[in-house]
């Protein structure tokens, strides 16, 4: 079974709280139990030090149409640390993620968070398609990844099973 996890934060790449811990530990546990032939975690790059984690920039650009805008993402690919290589990590790179903080600054949410996380959702699905990864299950973590499931069901991956976990109801 191929499993795709989509999360706005994954430890150790980016972390503000428990979401990052679960989005890292759960794929590790699934792969460790042998439930996933291929387990992939997708998250924004933010300002992650790609060299520190041995991530490689893929030469395939990921074109993403979102609303009336067209974006081009770069994917940094590697392995989720602590998984013995069993879990792939794809970090989506775009200037929208290059901010001092993940979600807000000076107590105010970034006004374009809808665009930023819409790009994560559409980008995860597009990257999977472009890179030839066909998930049987897509697991979205928190509101930032929720549109992944809507777009999957709406035609991007209609036969794929979906799961939504809310880690922070606030």
- Tally of helical segments: 3
Question: What's the total number of strands?
Answer: 10
The biggest beta sheet, please?
8 strands, mixed
**Estimated radius of gyration:** 15 Å
Helix amount: 25-40%
Between the first and last Cα atoms, what is the distance in angstroms? Answer: 32 Å
Q: Give the mean pLDDT.
A: 95
Inertia-based shape: globular
Q: What is the ordering of alpha helices and beta strands?
A: EHEEEEEEEHEHE
Briefly note the structural class of the backbone.
alpha/beta
Give the strand content: 25-35%
Q: Are there runs of 5+ residues with pLDDT below 50, and where?
A: none
How would you characterize this protein structure?
With 170 residues, this protein is an alpha/beta fold. Helices cover 26% and strands 31% of the residues. The protein is built from 3 helices and 10 strands; from the N terminus they run E-H-E-E-E-E-E-E-E-H-E-H-E. Strands 1, 2, 3, 4, 5, 6, 9 and 10 form an 8-stranded mixed sheet that branches. A two-stranded antiparallel sheet has the order 7-8. The chain is globular, with a radius of gyration of 15 Å. The N and C termini lie far apart (32 Å). 39% of the residues are buried.
């Amino acid at each position: 079974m191929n499993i795709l996890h989509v999360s706005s934060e994954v430890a150790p790449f980016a972390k503000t709280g428990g979401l990052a811990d679960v989005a890292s530990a759960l794929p590790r546990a699934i792969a460790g139990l042998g439930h996933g032939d291929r387990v992939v975690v997708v998250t924004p790059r933010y300002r992650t030090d790609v060299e520190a984690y041995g991530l490689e920039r893929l030469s395939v650009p990921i074109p993403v149409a979102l609303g009336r805008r067209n974006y081009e993402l770069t994917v940094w690919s590697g392995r989720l640390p602590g998984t013995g290589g069993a879990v792939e990590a794809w970090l989506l790179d775009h200037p929208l993620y290059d901010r001092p903080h993940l979600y807000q600054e000076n107590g105010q949410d970034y006004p374009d968070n809808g665009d930023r996380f819409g790009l994560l959702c559409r980008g995860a699905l597009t990257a999977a398609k472009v890179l030839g990864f066909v998930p049987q299950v897509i697991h979205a973590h928190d509101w930032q990844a929720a549109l992944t499931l809507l777009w999957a069901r709406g035609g991007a991956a209609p036969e794929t099973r979906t799961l939504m976990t809310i880690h922070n109801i606030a």
